[in-house]
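Q: I'm teaching a short session on how sequence maps to structure, and I want students to see two examples side by side rather than one. Could you give me a first protein with its sequence written out and its structure tokens following it? Keep the formatting plain so it prints cleanly on a handout.
A: Of course. Example one:
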Amino acid sequence: MRTTTLGTTDVRVTELSFGAAGIGNLFRPVTDEAASAAVAAAWDAGVRTFDTAPHYGLGLSERRLGAALRGRDRDTYTVSTKVGRLLEPHPEGGRGDDLAHGFAVPDTHRRVWDFSCDGVLRSLEASLDRLGLDRVDIALLHDPDHHAEQALTEAYPALERLRGEGVVKAIGIGVNQCALPARFLRETDIDVVLLAGRYTLLEQEGLAEVLPEAAARGRSVIVGGVFNSGLLTDPKPGAMYDYAPAPLHVLDRALRMKAVTERHGVPLRAAALRFPLGHPAVASVLSGARSADEVRDTVDQLRRTVPAALWDELRAEGLLPPHVPVPAAAPVDEADRPKEKSKSREGDRHGHAGEHG
């Protein structure tokens, strides 16, 4: 699988990153065995970049990811986690569940927003303990939308110091909107932005500021949420778009895109996965999975060749702006060609699990 470096760092990322929210019981339970098998399938497919966070399953994602990677050469893979939400024991923990936050786990802990320097250090130390690792490669500020000033004046300097000390190799921000990462790119020395749902086949809000700023400064973007909550896996009435039912005009656009991709013999999912990699600032696409079958299906889709004529027709139909960069139709190696087999649809309701949130 192709790899590239993040920004000006020496951190290597594969063009597909494994999002580990799904193995943190996103929306529904996953067994330990299924979680381990999903990570193993990603590894076998050449994926070497894994993204997690304390938020995902109240730490369950980090624990399962660390267990699944245990015994593998630490210098051969990249792990990112996030700071900004501390996990504290719930005073009445364990009596209910965490589904209000999207995770099917007991509510043994509660999340406390904390973008202070001390909060960053405590969060990272706890993450390392759950992962069973002595370091993470990438540390991201997690959704500091409503804590922007503290994130800029306290959390970012803490991450910058950790990077300078070699505790982490790359630092950045992981968000679902564009204004704040653009500001961070202008005002700080972050290495990477994890941008979810804002640079997809369906919408390219990130092209206004985030991606140009990153490219101009030699920084990298990892794109998550490429299926826009599942709409670009199977557009139909009732499909979700950004975690809510898709408006009719958005659904119609997705259906028109699907018709174009199918005329070229390409599944819509394959085009959606490949599209963000056409921008020079995009280093990787992040897609989650909760099973080995989901992983293999995602890898098969990413390895499909998407012809230039498909992008041309999307532009001609007014479904892509004329100035949007698109991937080259590079042939894949024979070993990378998708194999004919039954498809797993287990994760498609949400566009596979764990894109970022």
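Q: Perfect. Now a second example for contrast.
A: Example two:
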Amino acid sequence: MRILFAGNPAIAVPTLESLIASRHDIIAVLVNPDVASGRSKKLVASPVKELAKSHRISVIDPEKLTSDVELKVASLSCDILVCFAYGKIFKESFLSLFPLGGVNIHPSLLPKHRGPTPIQSALLHGDVHSGITVQRLAKAMDSGDILVQREFDITQWMHASAVEEYVASQSGDLLLQALDLLEENPQVGVAQNHEEATYCQLMGSNIGRIDLKVESVIGIYHKIRAYSYDPGAYVLWGDKRLFISRVTYDTGVFGEKIGTVLQYDKKNGLSVQALDGRLWLKEVQLQGKKRMDIASFFNGNRAIIGEILS
């Protein structure tokens, strides 16, 4: 097949690598424009763009999918659009440029967790299973017919970064299976049960804010698993954010004011009173500082005992 691949972040890179190594032809990649990064505001290309350049694959990087972009894509005469974490909505006029339409890799067991943050949503809800779906691109978000799915277990210690790494490692093989099916039968696919659909939300900069007075310790634990690495799960210590990246908990332990930092224990970490139990902080990052294990943090911040986190 002649393929246009649309994607941006690192999670999509192994899939593009699988396509490059396959019998299919990657005619071009569709990516977002380079973005300014750091204090110097140096323009940085997406991981997918960097991979494409290293293989001398043509790159299309528009701000918007305009009619001019459609004309350029039409001139490529691709058979199919393959999308993984591209981040833009494709109009019907764009999808009509491909005889086989478009397919999308979505990191959930659709119709569950439709939307932009399926991995975080699965962790936030405490799911013990998730999956990868290759679906047809449709007008409504993540509502297309399912070509192939693969389920996997989520262990209680997995954070979003670990789930993303696993999804990245498996998606290329699953996509190649889907492309084989489409070659055999262009009409292949199983309709989703839309009545069972659930949806996830965009990640704003404050979505990881922890409210110790309202949230259960189990809920906080899942929030940290979902958001600890991006965009960050945090409480406030005075006027600074204290980001928490690893934590355990005890339920049913009361007696102190919510938010009180109770004690430091070499084995368990730093204990904080929450609504329905206690959190044991294992790894943290004070705003403006580096992430560190709790022993290193406590050595430099012993005065935190007795303080109130909010």
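Q: What should students look for in example two?
A: Point them to this: Residues 160-184 form the longest helix (25 residues). Also worth mentioning: The chain is about 25% helix and 25% strand.
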